Every structure is written in structure tokens, then in C-alpha cells.
Amino acid sequence: MEIVKSGVREQLDVHRLREQFPVLARQVHGKPLVYLDNAATAQRPLAVIEAIDGFYRNYNANVHRGVHQLSVEASEAFEQSRQAVRRLLNARSEREIIFTRGTTEAINLVANSYLRPTIQAGDEILVSHMEHHSNIVPWQLLCEQTGAVLKVMPINQRGELLLDEAEAMISERTKLIGIVHVSNALGTVNPVAELCALAKQHGVPVLVDGAQATPHEKVDVQALGCDFYALSAHKMYGPTGIGALWGREELLEAMPPWQGGGEMITRVSFDGTTYNELPHKFEAGTPNIAGAIGLGAAVKWLEDIGVERIAAHEQKLLDHATERMSEVEGLTIIGQAAHKGPVVAFTLDGVHPNDLGTIIDHHGVAIRTGHHCAMPVMQFFGVAATARVSFACYNLRAEIDVFLDALEKARKMLT
């Protein structure tokens, strides 16, 4: 898709780009849809929809297991998507890219395959206070079952990681650090590269939850210096139920399989099993083939548009929303880190976020309300829930103004 160009690629032509998203043309409660719930899930462009449709219409077959033409075509498309994810993350090899159901499964894979075989009672896992439940609960389960201890790296009232205090928590008992790249609840962009550098000095591996980062900024796992990086397709304009884990090849090679079944083996007998090579060792059973192809299409679409250009557009939206929302009577923005992604979480004095979201929805505006699968950070800020607006490449400044008009009407109605 061509965007405005003059020698080099320039700012997005957002109105043209919106034509790629069929759902944006619909109405909700008789009003044009304003979709501001992108941190929960983004909408899909035609390129992704058509890639999935094309698979089912033209070459639906299982992968890696057939010599007939449809299987060959499906296998090629499936592995091309793996190559696309490798490019997205600047991984060294496709062998380092494991398809999963998403970020949650990727983190569970690391917990069960990387840490479980070696962790002992008294060992420690560090996470930050702003983590999504998917980067808390797998470690809690592991700790409950092994006697290990989960420790929490502190944040300040702006929602920023206290890096010096985090480093002071690293000890000889620390076996892994789990950190979110961009907080879904606050928008905070964490200093991942700096934390990884500190962890490396202590010989501690780092897993990064990248679900909210890959749609909004250029990710380079080699430059970050992390050891594992997890992502979900549906946050980055791809389908649900598919994602990926990147891991350093030497770590993945040493890890035992997490799940057993077809594809992850080379030989099976009742005397024993020989496991397949990377990445297939971790992909037991028939995979989400259509999902993987949709993920590859989403990566290609992002490459064509340019993640850096998307980030520049979203920063303008964030700045406009933050400025306007700061003027609303009784509104408090939760999370005001110096470096933020396109997320604004807030409370309104005397108003439950769910009531606010319901009224705003009747103006055609979709926002998110609740704890955002991040209850500990809600507890840190002393709130039960927040309302949240989150932006994507297809959002317009005018849509923020529509939201603010709806917010003001809801405020007057509820206070």
C-alpha cells in the first residue's frame, strides 16, 4: 500500500489507511464506530483477512506432513510467516522462532521448559509491579510447586520502573527476570535494554513480554540483549490465538519439550522418543496454520506501512489526548511515565469506570474498563479499575475529540 512519499516515506495518510479496515466503516448505536480499545486487540486489515481466507479457499492442508501440492503450499506459507517474525524481531535464525497461541502460552513455555527443570526452593524470580497477569501467574504457579520465591521490582507514582532498586534485588538466587516492554495498563515503556545489561552482569536471563510493543515500535531482540521475547498477533493487526516466542538458540536447544505429540518428534517407539530439531521441538500437534499465515501477513503489512511511521502518528494522538484529558474536571490519568506508548488510563471522580464505558459506548466509542488483567498495578495506585483509551495507526485526532465529547456528556450525567 502506498503512503505519502517524497523521496523518503513521510507521515501516514490515515484516511487512506482506514480503507484497509472494513470494520471501521460500521456504526454502533447509530453512530460511526470510534475504536479506542486497541491495547486489548487491534482491528485487522484486508491483507490479513484475505491471507487467511486465501488459505482456506485455495490450499488448506496440514503442514510438514504431506508431499501433495496443497501441503507443500501450506508448509511454504507457514514457514514464510516464521521468517517474517524473525525479521520483525531481528532474530538470528528462524530456529529461534516458536509459534505459540500467544504471549501467555509463550511465557508458560519458558516457565515449564526453561525454569522448571532446574529451579529449586529458595530460588527467586523477579517481575515488575506493572505486569500483566500472564507475566505473573505462570511464575506464581512455578513458585508454589517448587518453593521458589516471586519478588516484585518497584515502580514510582508515575508508573516507571525503579531501575536502581531493581538491580539491588538481583542476587545469586535470581534465576530469571520477567519484564513487560510496554505496559498495557499504564502505557509505560520500560528501559528493557538497560535492565538486560544489568541482568547480564549478574548472569541472569531476561524474558520480555512484548505484546504491547511490537505494534508500536521497532523491536530488535539482539540490541535489547534479552534472552526470551514473547508476542501476540492480535495486538499487531493479526488474528487471535497465535503468537510467538523468540529465544536464544543455545537456550532453546538445551530446553526439553514442554508438550508431547506429533511434529515435535523424529522417531517414536515404545522404547523411547527422539525429539525433533528447533523450532519444531516445541510445536506439538497440528498448529494454527491459518493463524500463523495471518500473523505473517500482519508482519508484512506492518513492514509495508513502517512501524516508525506508525509510532510517530500514535505519539501525536497520545499528546493530543493527554493534553485534552488533563483539562477534564475530576479526571486523573493513571500512569504518567516520561516514555509512554499510545495508552491513557484514567479515573473520573465519583464514577465507576464500567458506568463510564457503557455510556460512552452509546456514543459509538469503544474504550476499555476494568483492571486490564493487571490487578497488582491497580492496587498500587489504590484504584479498583480504570477506563482506558488506546490508539492504533488508523485512529484520527477527530476520533479523540468525539471520545472527549462523549466523556463530557457522561461526566455531567454521572456526577
Describe the secondary structure blueprint for this structure.
Blueprint: E1 5-6, E2 8-9, H1 14-18, E3 27-28, E4 31-32, E5 34-35, H2 46-58, H3 69-89, E6 97-100, H4 103-115, E7 124-128, H5 137-146, E8 149-153, H6 163-169, E9 174-180, H7 192-201, E10 206-209, H8 221-224, E11 228-232, E12 243-247, H9 249-254, E13 265-269, E14 272-275, H10 289-305, H11 307-325, E15 331-334, E16 343-348, H12 353-361, E17 365-366, E18 368-370, H13 375-380, E19 386-390, H14 397-414
Parallel strand pairs: 5-17, 7-8, 7-9, 9-10, 10-11
Antiparallel strand pairs: 1-2, 3-4, 6-12, 11-12, 13-14, 15-16, 16-19, 18-19
Helix pairs in contact: 2-10, 3-10, 11-14, 12-14
Write structural notes for this entry:
- The protein is of the alpha/beta class.
- The chain has two domains: 5-44 and 306-414, Aspartate Aminotransferase, domain 1 (Alpha-Beta Complex), CATH 3.90.1150.10; 49-303, Type I PLP-dependent aspartate aminotransferase-like (Major domain) (Aspartate Aminotransferase, domain 2, 3-Layer(aba) Sandwich), CATH 3.40.640.10.
- It is built from 14 helices and 19 strands.
- Strands 6-12-11-10-9-7-8 form a seven-stranded mixed beta sheet, with helices on both faces.
- Helix 11 runs parallel beside helix 14 (397-414).
- The termini are far apart.
- Mean pLDDT is 95; it is low at 1-8.
List the keywords.
alpha/beta, disordered N terminus, 415 residues, Aspartate Aminotransferase, domain 2, Aspartate Aminotransferase, domain 1, globular, single chain
